[in-house]
Design brief:
The chain is α/β, with parallel strands linked by helices. The protein is built from 4 helices and 5 strands, in the order E-H-E-H-E-E-H-E-H. The protein has one domain: Rhodanese-like domain (Oxidized Rhodanese, domain 1), CATH 3.40.250. It has a 5-stranded parallel β-sheet with strand order 1-5-4-2-3, sandwiched between helices. This is Rhodanese-related sulfurtransferase. InterPro entries: GlpE_sulfurtransferase, Rhodanese-like_dom, Rhodanese-like_dom_sf.
């Protein structure tokens, strides 16, 4: 794995959200996002993934998530290959782990 890509647990991402220091990118499909998503998550489906659609905000942690943690791998790799030089975080266990950890969800 690229050293620029890290795996983070739901509790860490929840802390970043509370601090206002996370940009969450949901790489699931639109119907999955509509059913339930992390508040403020930006939808950029893996099936149409374009790194230029990912908002890069200085001083914020960039976090990719999917349902189980698998689809965010290819999205993270594409982001790194695009020339993005910042740290890329993958939510370990995806939305499933997020909900199991009682993370906030919008429906």
């Amino acid at each position: 794995m690229n050293a620029q890509i890290k795996t983070v647990d739901p509790a860490t991402v929840m802390g970043w959200l509370k601090e206002g220091t996370a940009t969450i990118v949901d790489v699931r499909e639109a119907h999955e996002h509509r059913a339930a998503h992390i508040p403020g998550a930006i939808l950029v489906p893996l099936s149409q993934f374009d790194p230029s659609r990912v908002p890069v905000e200085p001083g914020k942690h960039l976090v990719f998530h999917c349902q189980s943690g698998r689809r965010c791998g290819p999205a993270s790799a594409r982001m790194a290959e695009s020339g993005y030089t910042g740290e890329i975080n993958r939510l370990n266990g995806g939305m499933s782990a997020w909900q199991a950890a009682s993370g906030p969800v919008e429906r």
